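Consider today's protein:

***
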Amino acid sequence: MSSENSSPDIADISSPTESVYVKMAAPPVFAFARLLEPQYLLVVFSAMGIIWLGAHGSLRRPPSAAPAKLKKGEKKREEEKFIEGLVASDVIRFPLMLAAVLVGLYYLIQWLQDPAILNKILRGYMSIMSIAGLGTLVGDGLDNLVSLIFPTMWADGIGRVHHIDPERRCQYMVNKETGEETIIPGKETPLPSRLSNLVQSAPKRRLLWALRHLLTEEWTVRLVIYGKRLLKVELHATDFFRFAISGAVAVAYHLTGSAALSNLLSMAMCYASFMMFSPTSFTIGTMVLASLFVYDVVMVFYTPYMITVAKNIDAPIKLVFKSAKGASMLGLGDIVVPGMLMALALRFDLYQHYQRKTTLEPVQLTITTENPSESSPETTTTTTTTTTQHRRVKAPYIDTRGQWGNRFWTTLLGRLSPVRGATDAIAATAFPKPYFYASLAGYAAGMFVTLTVMLVFNHGQPALLYLVPGVTGALWLTGLVKGELKDMWVYTEDGSLDTEDVVVEVDAEGRVVKEGKGETKGEGEKEKGGDAVEDDKERAKKRAEEKAKDRKEEGLVDSPGFHELFLFSVTAPRSAGVI
């Protein structure tokens, strides 16, 4: 982090390699007072805000939860995965790669002597690259907006949950004791709360239901050339707008160079980074942060590279906030690097939430053994032993997408959590987050220490020098206080914890004392017997039937005498209700 200041009462340190502890530029009391200036507050809250959004956007099914239950007619979706999960080798690879890029940019600036040329090239390149990141941010924002307008549930003033049913085009309540559904007369719109009373005419209600269906259900885009399907993508209506909006913003930034648009693109790239990269465990994440901690300190305090590049490059690689008194600047690495570990902490909170919802189901295990008879070795006796074990049953995962609107409409005024009847919204968004909140507190403390030291010595500071101890220290200290250091150590997102049908041994109090073996999802092929081969044939036959059915639904001709030379189609979802 660095600061550009025009105040005459603060001394200027010209050389980045000069010791910043030789002379104080401002007394600590004055530095604390200046922390309340707008540009510094904007840096802190912008960084924390984009980390909060990115961490929640990175949520996906934890290994302690079972796959989500499919609705009627819904196809099984392929679960999202991180493009790159950081491993132990990245502890060395990351700093070396970043150092090579930074040194290359520094000497390129020195060679050109005019950074304007480099800025034009980088601005054009970053404008194109930022379209995907901004598209992700805009798309998720539009999805949340749709969920606010068309939620699936809402609560009235006394805490009763109203469910919105798009199939029957009505609203109903569920009796907690009997589980019976009662349709609410007069509530025939997809709008929540008092908004449901605004639309009374039947044509307008039908229009709202149709609009809700088009915005919430998936569209299908297909491309077929010479009888072969090259593309089939399931999209939402918001996906058609996200890239149009992000492209327009990128073009506007390229033409105007607006600082506000640059900050927006920078935040979008940070947000997209949380969807793409993640350490596979707390141990690896801490090691990666430690190596980048050393890299940041060396590059800021002992070389001219970091500060020179940051001040001369005008591209969306940093957040810059200016005011009449000066400006403050924060590199994207100071957001993404600790933010990846903070996002992992939030997913660990979700993992623990579903782990607490796991139940133990008793199962009878029968073991048959054959032993030779003592009187006659040629004969055998059969012994059957029956034992009672327990099988771990995971709770089904509830996707966080589309639940933020439910949380808003089921949270009564003056409360922070939804009402008890809103079980989906609670499981998806209102689960306990002790590790994530601890990391947020550590990040905020690190940011304020960074700003204070920067103002005291009037020198750009390596923010990771303070952020890494703040975030990692807060996380491991939380694990120590909660007695969960072992859980943090063994938690991993490499897929090894995602097991099915695990049989465990429990003590008299129902606590697990011994883990059994379970089937790990995604394992490689194992040795197959005759039954397994027959099962493979059945699965292959079923896949062939499903493929033929898909081609028939898409209107593709299977006759050898005909080929679709070119077919491009966009199929809108058909409304389930009667219009």
Observations:
- The longest helix spans residues 115-149.
- Residues 360-393 form one domain.
- Confidence is low (pLDDT under 50) at residues 3-25, 522-533.
